Structure formats: structure tokens, C-alpha cells
Amino acid sequence: MPTPAELRERLIRNFNDVPRERFQRAPLYDSEAASLTKGTAARQLGASVDTVAPGQMSCPYHLHHAEEEMFIILQGEGTLRVAGERVPVRAGDVITIPPGPEYPHQLINTSDAPLHYLSISTQARPEVCEYPDSGKVGVFSDGLRLLQRREAGLDYWDGEP
Questions:
Q1: Which of 1, 19, 85, 94 has the greatest count of CB atoms below 10 A from its CB?
Q2: Is Cell inner membrane set as a keyword in this record (predicted)?
Q3: Residue 150 pLDDT > 90, yes or no?
Q4: DSSP assignment, residue 120?
């Protein structure tokens, strides 16, 4: 039987204590993320606490074919770019993004203060993501990460005997 300390290690993360990783690509992208589920017993859910710098974006505009996502705005305000529109968001808002091509999305900090939010997603694998601005397609699975432009695809029979 696991001890309370072992259970805490497997099941609990405090978002104030988790190490943060910075993602920066000037001039548009600057954010920090801290995984809340890495190394836990979680199998189907992923979560992180994210901070986007003022005037910056968290990640490219994209859509998922398998994963469903939820964003809970903890502090600050910004803009949700979704389905070709821009929708204001603020602290207390809960955003749900189902999988599929109807809701490509991106969070943008359009304010002068940091935007803090909780990201929650199903960890569906394999996953296919599309990036409408760049025309990229990504395929992600255990041990596989493939990104290419949609038009760079091969014929089904290419290379086969």
C-alpha cells in the first residue's frame, strides 16, 4: 500500500512549485508553461499553468483532430482567436475547444499585464494538428513527431514495390 508521501508524488502537483519552461520566438511568441501532470499517474488528461507576456501569443493558430482542450483564465485579459474571429477573454472565463476543424484557436495577450491561465486537454494519441496560418500539418504519437506542409505529402504508393 502506498504511503501518503508516495500518493502525493503520484497524484498531486502544486502549480506554485512546478518548474516553468519558457517558449520564446521573437517577435510574436513569449510564454511560460509548467506541466501539472508530467510524472503523475494521469493517463488521459494533461494540464499546465501558462503565462503569456503582454502583447505576445502562446503558440501558433492551430486545431486538433483528436484532443479536446479547456482553458481557464486565472488572471489578466486577452483575446481568443477562434474560428477566424477574435473574442475578448478575461479572468474567470472558461474556454472549451472541441476537436475538429471548426475551431482553430490561439490565445493572445492583448493587454499590458501578464495573462495567466490553466490549460487542460485530453491526451489523445495519435494526434493530428493543423496550422492554418502556415499550412503545416503535425502528427504526434509516442515516439513520433512529424511536421510538414500539407502540399508536401507523398502519393500513397510512393516508394512501394
A1: 94
A2: no
A3: no
A4: E
Rounded CA gap, 99 and 119, in Å?
15
Q: What is the DSSP letter of 5?
A: H
Per-residue pLDDT for 83 more than 90?
yes
* Cell numbers found for residue 140: 504526434
Cα(50)–Cα(48) distance, integer angstroms: 6
Residues 137 and 128 sit within 8 Å (Cβ to Cβ): yes
CB distance 109 to 53 below 8 Å: yes
The grid coordinates listed for 82 are 477562434
Contacts of 146 (CB under 8 A, 6+ apart): 138, 139, 140
Which grid cell sits at 61?
493558430
pLDDT at 154: 84
Distance CA 21, CA 33 (A): 5
Rounded mean pLDDT, 95-121:
98
Select from 96, 86, 85, 75 the least CA-distant residue to 15. 75
pTM over 0.85: yes
